[in-house]
Design goal:
By secondary structure, the protein is of the alpha+beta class. It has two domains: 30 residues, no CATH class; 209 residues, NADH Oxidase (3-Layer(aba) Sandwich), CATH 3.40.109.10. The protein contains nine helices and nine strands. Strands 1-6-5-4-7-9-8 form a seven-stranded antiparallel β-sheet, sandwiched between helices. The structure holds flavin mononucleotide (FMN).
Length: 249
């Protein structure tokens, strides 16, 4: 006990990692069954139904998308086509089916509990007004949380990273901790971060295949993003992605 406290004082992350190891001999006590979640906001101000995804737009071979995938931070000031945006977000995050009542996506999540939620700051997407939205992965629609121009606020919250100013939209991937904690207890924090990593690679690969550009950002002021995106307690902003058409194709 004394050892772990000493480690905690030096490095709380390492202390957590050690404390959340599954003991050997194996003894893994689940907290419960867990509830697959979805954030149903009662307070959104409007809904935008997105277009059906167009598979034809995603013809790039997987091997090419993997090899082309790069973090790109300069974008053209060009509006993203509504069909392209709809196809992008569908393949990144839409619900694709169910197993035992748990929604399944194009990325895996621990216990199929779907800990990540996707929020989007729209700046320059055809047919969608500027604002902060939550993506509804069941109905493939955007729920308007706040309308208006939030680009400068997101830029300030992301430690003034210039890609935010140039982007057409920014995606905030949020971890909903309780969802995974309800089944996995102390081990949940690992799983929430790991879930988010999987959706992140989707964002990169789908953007690449659609000839869009993106970069992942972990450097930001958590509380400021939480305020801008109106997150609730227990909803952690984990990664921010700027997206736009690349300056050079
Ligand atoms: C967890 C994580 C956090 C990152 N944070 C930032 C960031 O705040 N700003 C940034 O410009 N790039 C950020 N990146 C992008 C990395 O710098 C980039 O992936 C790395 O340089 C490798 O380049 P590549 O993605 O083009 O292969 C982050 C990447 C990851 C995975």
């Amino acid at each position: 006990m004394k050892d772990i406290i000493e480690i905690f004082i030096r490095d709380p992350g390492l202390a957590y990692h050690i404390s959340s190891k599954i003991p050997f001999p194996y003894r893994f006590e689940l907290e419960g069954r867990g509830s697959p979640g979805f954030k149903r906001r009662g307070d959104y101000q409007g809904i935008i139904e997105l277009d059906k995804p167009d598979k034809e737009l995603l013809k790039m071979p997987l091997s090419e998308a993997l090899l082309k995938r790069r973090s790109i931070r300069r974008y053209r000031s060009k509006s993203i086509d509504f069909k392209v945006f709809s196809t992008f977000i569908y393949f990144v995050a839409a619900v694709q089916g169910y197993k035992y009542g748990y929604p399944l996506r194009t990325y895996p999540t621990a216990g199929a509990l779907n800990s990540p939620e996707v929020f989007i700051h729209i700046d320059n997407v055809e047919l969608i007004d500027k604002g902060i939205y939550h993506y509804n992965p069941f109905s493939h629609s955007l729920e308007l949380i706040r309308s208006g121009d939030f680009k400068y606020e997101v830029y300030k919250a992301s430690l003034e990273q210039s890609q935010v100013l140039e982007s057409a939209f920014n995606i905030l991937v949020v971890g909903v901790y309780d969802r995974t904690y309800s089944k996995y207890g102390l081990r949940a924090y690992r799983y929430v971060l790991e879930d988010v990593g999987h959706i992140g690679q989707n964002i990169y690969l789908v953007a690449t295949a659609l000839n869009l550009a993106t970069v992942c950002m972990g450097a930001f002021i958590d509380d400021e993003l939480s305020t801008i995106f109106q997150l609730n307690d227990g909803e952690f902003p984990l990664l921010l992605y700027s997206v736009g058409y690349p300056v050079s194709p």
